[in-house]
């Protein structure tokens, strides 16, 4: 089972995190806040409505995701 966490800011910028039910909602919203704040600083607001991955470059997302993803533990021997 998965949960969809959505955050819509007052400026109209929105983000979505899809996580399983064991991932803490507070962490999802912390990730959303950081990504949306940084995105809004790097990408002009006029580009938000019509932008796409082909027209907007936002390279920080991968870094944020790698810090917030839960890594599976290696099996014990």
UniProtKB/TrEMBL annotation:
Cellular compartments per GO CC: Golgi apparatus
Name the UniProt record assigns to this protein: YKT6 protein
Keyword Protein transport among UniProt keywords: yes
Main location, first listed in the record: membrane
Annotated ranges, domain Longin: 1-69
Naturally occurring in which organism (per UniProt): Formicarius rufipectus
Molecular functions (GO terms): SNAP receptor activity
Topological category with respect to the lipid bilayer: Lipid-anchor
Localization, UniProt: Endomembrane system
């Amino acid at each position: 089972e998965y949960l969809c966490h959505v955050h819509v800011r007052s400026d109209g910028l929105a983000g979505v995190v899809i996580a399983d039910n064991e991932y803490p909602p507070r962490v999802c919203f912390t990730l959303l806040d950081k990504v949306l704040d940084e995105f809004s600083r790097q990408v002009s607001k006029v580009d938000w409505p019509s932008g796409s991955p082909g027209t907007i470059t936002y390279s920080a997302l991968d870094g944020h995701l790698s810090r917030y993803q839960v890594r599976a533990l290696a099996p014990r021997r």
